[in-house]
Structure formats: structure tokens, C-alpha cells
């Protein structure tokens, strides 16, 4: 449990110390190192002000919490004194890292290890900021739990039920869940084509929150592939590991709206998560099939492993035509190509609208979630207009600019609305656990007062 100024203080305290001010020779001068001085009943975390404070403090605290076996106080003021001009960023680093690392992770072990309590001791009044951070991190951790649940349990139906249960407790949220028959009635042919090989029905979850009807309406669209085998374009076995995280985008977008609603933000937002697995079966979609999308465009399926853009396309159409959004952001673990380009360090961003891109990029900077803009030019769209029998192909032949052609495919369904695509294939998980990436960015962007 993370506490703020609890009357129940613990025996040990963690303090920050500026590397430049270390006089005690027993305290390590290595950035991020922690030294225990038993006489003080205190740990000292060494901070290097020449480096990024948010990143340095987060990394040092993260390493410390992972090995911490005691309930502990954190002397927040010792951190804030390091650089008073960056107080908000320092406080956010402490609170966000505490909630992230102290969360009881999904575990099916016989004896899971519970986390210890942390008491933040802060003399300055930061209670409002703490409560806001607490809400935001609640939904980062909720997303991580959905991401980490094994795919034999986390089916489209189970995830939709989990989100529905969570959403029903939040004031001001409108929840709509579509079953397979209703999805058919909506004409979501692309989503249904991905689901065709599965014995588990698809689900579409829509959350709407109007904190201020005068604000422009933002649509958040998330890919919710609960497990991706690749379909008939079967993945090699080593590439199937981690495919339970392919639903990350949908969990992130829906959790963002729940966080905004719980924080009572003055915003106008909807999110749609499209959930299905991608399996091989007697009814599974074949390569070279032609499928009609919700907006009427036809798509030739040149690669059944390029399924995420298919469900997103129908989700974007829903946001534009049913929810009447003014602007769109999608998030998806979409391409391996973005992992090659950016690794695990940055989320790929794509947009043809410079102002909308900049607004999201500025929010990402404030949220300390690194992003990097990737090209999206007319030639990328032309590359996926190569089918002799359909309007588009779902995967451009060859390996040229794979992330950009995927983004161009999605942008073609935005119907001229300002559009940002977030490819989180490299940042949604760390290989073993989900990260809930980009919730902080979207919360920063849309949490208007």
C-alpha cells in the first residue's frame, strides 16, 4: 500500500542525496546506488543532477523497491530539495514508481510474495497531485493485470467482462458491449474475418465520458488481439511468445477513459476496444480472401498475420461514424518493424496532422514516455493500393517501411479526421510483464481542469 503522510511511520526511511553533496565516505557516489547507514536508520539514494532527474530517480527507486523486504518511509522533501524548480517531476517520479513497483503482480504461484507498505512523508501540500497520480496509476496497474493474464484465461469475453465490471463502478461512464451478432449488424467485416477461426466470440467494448460537452470529442481506438497465432500465415514458434500482450492497445485506451472519468476531467472522450484472438481453424480466413470493412472499403488479405490493422480499421470507422469524433488516436502492438527501428525505448508515432501530432508529443514529454515520429507519406498509401481485386491490401508485399504502410492503411479509414497512430509493439511489455505504456501520456493530454 502507498500512503501519504500516514501517522504510522516505519522504522526505516529512504532519503535522497545529491551526488555533489556527499561528504560521508560510506555513501556510494554511483548514481542510483542505495547505501544503508544503520546508525541513521536510513537508506540514501544517490542522485546525479547532471542527468535526467525523473529517469534517474525512477530507475533508482525501481531497483530499490524490487529488493525491499521492509515497510519503509520515503522522505519526499529530501528528493524535492535536490532541485526545487523540478518539484512536480520529482514528485511524480516518486509516486509513479512507488505505485508501479509496489503493485501485486498477476501470479499463479503457490506462494506469491506480497509487497510491503510505503509511506511518503511530505511536508508541502501535494495531496491533490497525489490523488491524481493515484488514480492514473490505478489504471496503469489495471491494464498491466489484463496484459499479464495468461491467454487461456484472458479471452475476449473474459476481458470484456473485467473491463465492464471495473467501469460500472465509475460515475459518468457510458458502457456498451457488443456481442458477435451485434458486431455483424454493425458490419464490422474486418474484425469478424480475424475472429473467423476462433471458437471464442469477439467482443467490442465502448466507453464514453463527457466531462465537458463543449470540448472537441476525442476517439481512442485500441487493438485487442488476445492471442495472435498469425492465422494461416502462421508465426514461427519463437515469435508466438509474448502474443498474449497483443491486446495491450485496447486495454490501454479503455483504461485511459476510466481514469479520466474517475478524475472527473473536463474532457469529451470515447474509447473502443476490439477483442478477438487470431487462430487457425476450419473457418479461418484464407490468404487472398477479400473482405468488406465497416466503412465499405474492400481489403484483400495478403497476410493473415497482419490482423491488428483490420480490427483497428473497423474501430476507427465506428469512432468516426457512430461516435462522431473530431480527432482520433489509436494504440496497437502493430508491427515488428517498429521494434527493429526503435527497440524498447520509444513508441513510434505516425500522423499527417502536425498540430495533432505535436499535442500528443508534448503530452508524452510531460508524462516522461519517450516517442519518436515516423514518416507517413502518400507513397505509403499507394503501396497498399496494389490489389487487382480490392481497394487495399492489408500488408504491402515485401518488407519496405512496414510500420509506415500499416499506419497509412489505418489513416485511410480516418476519413480526413486528425489522426495519430501509436505503434507500441516495442514498449507495451518488457518481455515478461505488461507496462501499461501511454496511459500517462493520454491522461496528460486529456485531463483538462
TrEMBL record:
Function: Presumably involved in the processing and regular turnover of intracellular proteins. Catalyzes the removal of unsubstituted N-terminal amino acids from various peptides.
GO CC terms: cytoplasm
InterPro entries according to UniProt: Leucine_aapep/pepB, Peptidase_M17_C
PROSITE patterns in UniProt: CYTOSOL_AP (PS00631)
Keyword Cell membrane tagged: no
Keyword terms, alphabetized: Aminopeptidase, Hydrolase, Protease
UniProt protein name: Probable cytosol aminopeptidase
Pfam families in the record: Peptidase_M17
Location of the Cytosol aminopeptidase domain: 303-310
Lineage: Bacteria, Bacillati, Mycoplasmatota, Mollicutes, Entomoplasmatales
SUPFAM superfamilies recorded: Zn-dependent exopeptidases
UniProt entry tagged with the keyword Protease: yes
GO terms classed as biological process: proteolysis
GO molecular function terms listed in the Swiss-Prot or TrEMBL record: manganese ion binding; metalloaminopeptidase activity
Family: Belongs to the peptidase M17 family.
